[in-house]
Amino acid sequence: MSHTDMVVIPNTPTLVAEENVEKIRAAAELAAKEAARIHRVSLREKKEEKKDRLPVQGEMFETDKGEQIILKQKLGDGAMGHVFLISKDGRAMAVKTEKFSTGMLPMEIKVLLSTMREKCKHFCRIHDYGTIRREYNYMIISLLGRDLYRLRSEMPTRSFSISTTTKIALETLESIEELHSVGYLSRDVKPSNFAPGLRDFKEHKTIFMFDFGLAKKYVDREHRKLKSRGEVGWRGTVRYGSLNAHKRLDLGRRDDLECWFYMLVEMHVGELPWRFLTDRTAVGKAKIHAREEGRPNFFFKLPQQFETILKMIDGYAFETRPEYRQMKKLINEIRVENQCSDRIKWDWQTDESQYSELTEAVSVMSDMAILAEQGATNVTDRNQG
Ligand SMILES: Nc1ncnc2c1ncn2[C@@H]1O[C@H](COP(=O)(O)OP(=O)(O)OP(=O)(O)O)[C@@H](O)[C@H]1O
Ligand SMILES: [Mg+2]
C-alpha cells in the first residue's frame, strides 16, 4: 500500500446540509495536499537510502569547518565501518566512517567526549566529527599503531611473552577501569579493539582502547547503577563473550573483565580451546568445560594468579564493582616472579621500530599524488544533489 492510499478522505454522508458541503470540500483538499506531501517525502527518503554508503580510499570530503580531508589509506575494516589514515593540520590521524544509516558512531563520539573530558589516558582524542550529505558519518581521532590482534598474529609463535602479556594486562585493565569510571561498559573487549600508540607521538608505551559501537551507559544521570534488565539478547564477539552473554543476559562491568581475561589467555598461550568452534552454544560449553574438567589443561601454561583472577570475576554479581586494584596487584606479582623488567620493551618492538612507525607511504605520499593515483571523486560539495 502506498502512502497515498493511506490518507483517509472524509466520508460524504448521504444527506448533507448545504453549509457542510464547503467544509467537506476543504477537508478533502487538505487530505489530498497531505497525501502529495507524504509522497514527496517518501521519494526523497528512497533517494537518500540509495546514497547511504561507505566512503572509499582516495576520496575527499569537506568538514563543517570547510577543511578538506583525503582518505589516504585504509587502516581497518570493521564490521560496521572503515578506518582510514588522513592528514589534518599537518599531522597523521585516523578517521572512522560508517554508513549514515548505521548510527553507531554517535555513541562512540559520546564515549570519547566523556573520556576526553575526564582526561583519561587510554583513549584516542577526538578532533572532529560530522555527517557527509546523509551518506556517511565520520569521526577524526588520534592515529594508533597496529591492533593487538594483528600484532600477535605477526609473532612467529603467535603469542606474547609473559612480560608483554602482563604489561598489556595492566594497560588494558586500566583502560577498562577508566571506561567504567566515566559510566560506560564496552561490551566488546577483544584484542582488535586495543592498540599501542605511536612512537612518533611518544605514545608507544600506552595501550589505547577504541571501538565503542556496542558501548552502553551502566549508570543513570544521578550516577546510580542501573539494574540488570534480565534477558536482552547477545552482545559482543562470540570468541571473547562472557558466560552471561552466552545466556543472553544483560551485561555489567564483570563481563568486560571476563572478555579481558579470555583475551589475555589467548595472547600468552597463543590460542583459546574454542578457537575452531563457530557455534555459539558450543563455544559457551567450551568456556564452562575450561572451568571444570578442562581446567588443568586451560591453565597449564599460565601463572597461578590467572586462576585467582578468573575466580574473582566468576564470583562477581551484575552490580559488583570489580576489584581492579587487587587484579593489578596479582599481575604485578607475576611480573616480579618472572623478573620482568620495569623498562618495557614490547615483543613487537624491533630496532627498526625505534624510530618512525609511520610508513613511507604514510609520511611521504602527498595528497595530490594519492588523488591522482586513485582517480578520486571530489565529493566535497555537500549541498549538491
Ligand atoms: N585510531 C586508529 N588508528 C589506527 N588504526 C585504527 C584506529 N581505529 C581503528 N583502527 C583499525 O581499524 C580496525 C576497525 O576499527 P574499529 O574496531 O573501531 O571498527 P568496527 O567496525 O567497530 O570493528 P569490529 O566491529 O569489527 O570490531 C581496528 O581493529 C584497527 O585495526
Ligand atoms: Mg573493532
From TrEMBL:
Q: Which UniProt keywords apply?
A: ATP-binding, Nucleotide-binding
The cross-references to PROSITE patterns, in alphabetical order and at most eight, read: PROTEIN_KINASE_ATP (PS00107), PROTEIN_KINASE_DOM (PS50011)
Q: MF terms per GO, please?
A: ATP binding; protein kinase activity
Give a yes or no for keyword rRNA-binding in this entry: no
Q: Give the binding site residues for ATP.
A: 96
Protein kinase domain ranges (all copies): 69-336
Which InterPro entries has this protein been placed in?
CK1_Ser-Thr_kinase, Kinase-like_dom_sf, Prot_kinase_dom, Protein_kinase_ATP_BS
Q: Under what name is this protein listed?
A: Protein kinase domain-containing protein
UniProt organism field: Caenorhabditis angaria
* Species classification: Eukaryota, Metazoa, Ecdysozoa, Nematoda, Chromadorea
